Amino acid sequence: MADQRSYPQRPFLAVSAAIVRDGKILVVRRAQPPAQGVLTLPGGVVEVGETLMEAVAREVREETGMAIAPVALAGFREAIVRDPQDRVERHFVILCFASRWQAGEPALNEELSEAHWLDPADLAGLQTTPGLAEIVAAAFERLAG
What we know:
Structural class: alpha+beta
Radius of gyration: 15 Å
Helix content: 10-25%
Order of helices and strands: EEEEHEEEH
Distance between the termini: 44 Å
Largest sheet: 7 strands, mixed
């Protein structure tokens, strides 16, 4: 199913949150394509007129119902998906923010099917988005500093 983000003319800017609570990281499972069934961090596309910090807080609130405090940029990822004809079907630049949990329990919207608070070491061997463990490690470093 094509959508307005398929076969873009330019990359989309997105944000995600590495949310830390009591030494654990929140990971969510995507319920819909792209990345359906994969564990990742909550987040989404930045809207026009919105700061990056506003965008990440809004996306987390929309997807999980939780309040967070974004602290610092933990890193970035580029998600480029090509179709069988090698055309760029999707292209996102995702800025991930180390964030502290403030309030609420995960109440997932239709984009997500599961949420888990995990020890970062538990990410090894799970089906996650590329580079997730490295982003989580960087987020813990930013929050410790």
